[in-house]
Design goal:
Chain lengths: 417, 90
C-alpha cells in the first residue's frame, strides 16, 4: 500500500486498526540468487537496490536479531559529506544526494533534516586544516562554508565563544546540507521497499557457518536451517571479522565499541549539529528534544555492545566545556555499538578472494550517513561482479597495493581513526 | 570501570593504560627476505576474535611498563596478565 494523505484518511475511518504490515515475515527458502547477511540499514539498502536497480528479486536478508537492531539503531543519526580525499568525497556526496530524495523514493518518511553540520576550529592548525578541507569539498562540487568566530557565535549562541573558554573557538567549517535523519525509519523504509519487490527479510536467523567448497561458498548454516546461495553479501558491521572468519577470510578490521548518550528531553534549543575534532565530541538535538552526544571509542578491541563510564565522562565534560548552559541537564540513557574499524579509516566495499562472496565493511564511526550509497554500490558490485565507479577505490586489496584512503593520516592503528 | 591487573602495580583503572593493540602479530625477520603478502599480513591483517584476545597495554600513567593481557573481548573479563616478553614496538 502506498502511504499518502488518502490512505491516511481512509484508515482514519477504521481508527487506524487495519493498516497492513509493512513487510512480510516469510520462512526461508532453500535457495536464493543472492543472500545478504545482516539486516541493518546497509544490508536492507543493498537488497532494495538489487531489486530496484538491477532487477534481482530472488534475494534474502538474514538478520540474527530484528532489523535495525544493531548499529542502525545505535548511531547518532548524523548525515554529511564533508570529506577531503576524492574517493570519500564522491562516495559520501552521492549518499547525501540519495538522502535528499530518499523519503520520496521509499514512500517512507526518513525525516532527513538538513540542519547543518558545524566543525569547530580551536587553533590556527584547525583553521588551516578546515580551509584546506572546505576548499577541497568545493572543488568536488560539495557545499562548504568557512565561518569566523563571530559567525559561529551568531549561528550557535549557546556556545562558549569567549577568549577564556576551555576550548577557545576561533572559526568553523559548515556544511548546510548535512544534518540528521531518523535512523529506525531508514531500516524500516528500505525493508518495506525491498519486501514490496519480492525480497525475503528473515529475522531471528543467525548465521552459524559458511560452507566453503574450494573457492566458493555453497551455502549458509543458520539457526533456521541451511540456505544455498549463488552469491553472498556480508554487511554485518562490527561482526565482519567474526562472520568472514567462518569462511576463512581474514580482514584488515578490528572491532571496537563506540558509545553515545542522550539527555532528558528539553524544548528546541540547538538547531544544528555541532562537532569538534580537537575535543573529539559531537552533539545535536533530536526531534524528541533529547541532546544526543558522543565522542571517542573506548580505544581497545571489544564486542561488548554496552556502555561504560570513562567515555561517558569524556563526552559530558566536552559538552559542558563547549556549552556551559547544559550543566544541569540530566542524562537519560547511554549505550554502545561495535564498530568495524578498518586500518585506514575508510570502508571496504567489494570482492573477496572467494568467487561468490562480497563484503561491505570497515565503516568505522561513519556507517549511518553512508547507508544509501553503500547499498547502491554494494548492490552494483554483487549484480555485476565488479565495483561501481564510486566504490572502485574501496577494495580489500588496497592495503597491500599501497592505496590506502587515510583521511586522518593515522596509519594502521584502527582505534585512532 | 574495567580494572587491568598490572603485574608490577596490581589492579588499576583502565584509564591509566594506553592500548597497544593485538599481540598476536609477529614482526617478520629480514625485511628484504619477506614476501609482500607476509608483510601486508603483519601490518594490516588481524584475527579480531570475539572472545579471548592477546593484547599489549602500556601502564602509561603508572609504572610505564608494557604488559601483555589476555582478555575476553565480549565479556571484558581479564584472563591473565604478564610482563611483555620482549621490547615492544607498537
Amino acid at each position: 500500500m502506498k502511504y499518502s494523505i488518502y490512505s491516511l484518511v481512509r484508515n482514519a475511518f477504521s481508527y487506524h486498526e487495519n493498516w497492513p504490515r509493512a513487510w512480510r515475515s516469510p520462512e526461508p527458502k532453500s535457495e536464493y540468487d543472492v543472500v545478504i547477511i545482516g539486516g541493518g540499514g546497509h544490508g536492507l539498502a543493498t537488497a532494495y537496490y538489487l531489486a530496484k536497480n538491477h532487477g534481482i528479486t530472488n534475494v534474502a536478508v538474514l538478520e540474527k536479531g530484528y532489523i535495525g537492531g544493531g548499529n542502525t539503531g545505535r548511531n547518532t543519526t548524523i548525515v554529511r559529506s564533508n570529506y577531503y580525499l576524492d574517493p570519500n568525497a564522491h562516495f559520501y556526496e552521492h549518499s547525501l544526494k540519495l538522502w535528499e530524495g530518499l523519503s520520496a523514493d521509499l514512500n517512507y518518511n526518513v525525516m532527513y533534516s538538513p540542519r547543518g553540520v558545524l566543525n569547530l576550529a580551536h587553533s590556527y592548525a584547525d583553521l588551516d586544516a578546515y580551509s584546506r578541507r572546505g576548499n577541497a569539498m568545493r572543488l568536488n562540487g560539495i557545499d562548504a562554508e568557512f565561518l569566523t568566530r563571530e559567525e559561529v557565535a551568531r549561528m550557535v549562541p549557546l556556545l562558549d565563544c569567549s577568549p577564556h573558554a576551555r576550548y577557545p573557538i576561533i572559526g568553523g567549517l559548515l556544511q548546510r546540507r548535512g544534518g540528521t535523519a531518523r535512523h529506525d525509519a531508514v531500516a524500516w523504509g528500505y525493508a518495506r521497499g525491498a519486501d514490496a519487490r519480492g525480497v525475503d527479510i528473515i529475522q531471528q536467523c543467525e548465521v552459524t557457518g559458511l560452507r566453503r567448497n574450494g573457492n566458493r561458498i555453497e551455502g549458509i548454516d543458520t539457526t533456521r536451517g541451511y540456505v544455498r546461495a549463488k552469491k553472498i553479501g556480508l554487511a554485518v558491521s562490527g561482526h565482519s571479522g567474526h562472520v568472514a572468519g567462518m569462511a576463512g577470510v581474514r580482514l584488515p578490521i578490528e572491532t571496537h565499541v563506540l558509545q553515545a548518550l542522550v539527555s532528558e528531553p528539553v524544548k528546541p534549543i540547538l538547531d544544528t549539529v555541532v562537532t569538534s575534532g580537537a575535543v573529539h565530541f559531537y552533539v545535536s538535538q533530536s526531534d524528541k528534544g533529547e541532546l544526543v552526544l558522543g565522542g571517542d571509542l573506548d580505544m581497545y578491541n571489544s564486542y561488548g555492545q554496552r556502555s561504560n563510564l570513562p567515555p561517558v565522562e569524556h563526552a559530558v565534560q566536552s559538552l559542558l566545556a563547549l556549552f556551559p548552559c547544559f550543566s544541569r541537564l540530566r542524562m537519560l540513557r547511554t549505550w554502545g555499538g561495535v564498530m568495524d574499524m578498518s586500518m585506514d579509516g575508510s570502508p571496504i566495499i567489494g570482492k573477496t578472494p572467494l568467487d561468490n562472496f562480497y563484503i561491505d565493511c570497515g565503516w568505522c564511526y561513519g556507517g549511518f550517513k553512508a547507508t544509501p550509497a553503500s547499498g547502491w554500490c554494494f548492490a552494483h558490485t554483487i549484480a555485476h561482479d565488479q565495483p561501481h565507479a564510486l566504490n572502485a577505490a574501496y577494495t580489500l586489496d588496497r592495503y597491500g597495493l599501497g592505496r590506502t584512503i587515510d583521511e586522518r593520516g593515522g596509519g594502521p592503528y584502527p582505534w585512532v581513526h | 570501570m574495567m580494572l587491568l591487573p598490572c603485574p608490577y602495580c596490581g589492579p588499576r583503572d583502565v584509564t591509566e593504560f594506553t592500548y597497544g593493540g593485538d599481540d598476536g602479530t609477529v614482526r617478520p625477520g629480514d625485511p628484504q627476505a619477506v614476501s609482500d603478502a607476509r608483510w601486508v599480513s603483519y601490518v594490516y591483517i588481524r584475527d579480531n576474535p570475539r572472545g579471548p584476545h592477546d593484547e599489549l597495554w602500556q601502564h602509561s600513567a603508572g609504572c610505564r611498563r608494557w604488559i601483555r593481557v589476555r582478555r575476553d573481548t565480549l565479556t571484558h573479563q581479564v584472563l591473565s596478565s604478564a610482563p611483555a616478553a620482549q621490547p615492544v614496538q607498537p
